[in-house]
Fold:
Amino acid sequence: MWQSAREIGLRALDGIEPDVIDRIRAEAAAVPGVVGVPDVRARWIGHAIRPELALFVDGDQPVSEADRVAEAVRHRLAHHVDFVADPFVTVRPAGGGGQRT
Structure:
């Protein structure tokens, strides 16, 4: 009963379970061209999860390639993580140290 009450309370506050955040991060990191995923946030909106991610990509690649990587991440999340809809993805160039998360 407490588990059910906890889940209802979490959902009422638009909360997302930590394992869902981990799954979103892992799926995004699996896309070729993603160097790191430093920030993942998500919330329930109605019956869908709306994730917001920041990605590191190779800073030496053209903007068109970075945009292709972002689109591939959006597609992968929508098709591989239950309830995900309309992911918001920002792309940042990886620094000289090649950040990885």
Observations:
- The chain has one domain: 2-93.
- Residues 2-93 form a domain with the Alpha-Beta Plaits fold (CATH 3.30.70.1350).
- Confidence is low (pLDDT under 50) at residues 9-13, 97-101.
